[in-house]
Amino acid sequence: MATRKITDLSRATKPTSSDLLLVETSNGTRAMTYEDLVNPAIGEAEENAALNLDNRNTYRGKNLGSSVTAAQKTAIQNGTFDDLFIGDYWTIGGVKWLIADMDYWYNCGDTAFTKHHLVIIPETTLYSARMNATSTTEGGYVNSEMYKTGLNNAKTTVTSAFGSMVLTHRELLVNAVSNGKPTAGAWCDSTVEIPNECMIYGHLHFSPTSDGSTVPYIYTIDKTQLSLFALRPQLIVNRASSYWLRDVVSSAYFALVGHVGATNYYGATGSSGVRPVFAIG
């Protein structure tokens, strides 16, 4: 009888969990289900990623150089974050880019964001700009001058520094305001944004909340404080400039971080700092 080779057999195009595979072990040839083979590998990868997320709870503040290395890129994309810690930074284009969090947006969005990533924020503001040409918050953040054109310079700077590593995820952003309170929002493709109060402080300060009859539209996936600011709250403050947050405070004011360290708000036509956040991976 002619010996049949594996290459002579019909090929399975999509294995099922109960399919048997041949495995050569120290005790001879054994059968193993596809499920038994794959699940431990997945579990090990997830466990490694979870263990290395301890890096998310450790501030180091190490200079990582002037560009993301191939090894660093791999460590980000596979979710292990090997030798990357909160507060570590790259200095690119004269800007110190800090690691602010790890997998912050993972599995969030109307379309789940399933790419492992770092959240990056500059150490200081990049420039100053206004939220709107008139003193209004009508239309919310999505319809503001800041969102439409005010972030263009930031996007250019970020892309120049990190190129194709800049990721797009889905954000739920306010697009309507009534009586000074946000009333509606929409899912938007997001690359570079200004942060909200929760990302900086860990909770709301000036954003409207429910008064018992009106429930403002304050839905967000950016619902927890970035690890950088939890571990080093002094890094919230930029003494050289206050900087904008995207939260609607009233019919004329948006929230901001005061240069003296105080929570604050400012008229939409005022000029304040732009300190964007974004994901790389």
Q: Which descriptors apply to this entry?
A:
single chain; 281 residues; alpha+beta; 2 domains; five-stranded antiparallel beta sheet; three-stranded antiparallel beta sheet; 6 helices; 19% helix; globular
Based on Cα principal axes, name the global outline: globular
How is the biggest beta sheet arranged? 5 strands, antiparallel
* SS summary, helix count: 6
Order of helices and strands: EEHHEEEEHHEEEHHEEEEE
- Beta-sheet strand percentage? 25-35%
Terminal CA distance reads 55 Å
* Strand elements, count: 14
Q: Given the helix and strand composition, which structural class is it?
A: alpha+beta
Mean pLDDT: 89
Low-confidence stretches: 37-42
Percentage of residues assigned to helices = 10-25%
- Spatial extent as radius of gyration: 24 Å
Write out the strand line-up for the largest beta sheet, numbering strands in chain order.
Answer: 3-4-5-14-9
User: Structurally, how many domains make up the residues?
Assistant: 2
Mind explaining what this structure looks like?
19% of the residues lie in helices and 27% in strands. With 281 residues, the chain is of the alpha+beta class. The chain has two domains: 19-57; 61-280, no CATH class. The strands form five sheets. Strands 3-4-5-14-9 form a five-stranded antiparallel sheet. Strands 10-11-12 form a three-stranded antiparallel sheet, with no helix packed on it. A two-stranded antiparallel sheet has the order 1-2. A hairpin with a 4-residue loop joins strand 10 (243-248) and strand 11 (253-257). The radius of gyration is 24 Å and the shape is globular. The chain starts with 19 loop residues before the first strand and ends with a strand. Residues 37-42 have low confidence and may be disordered.
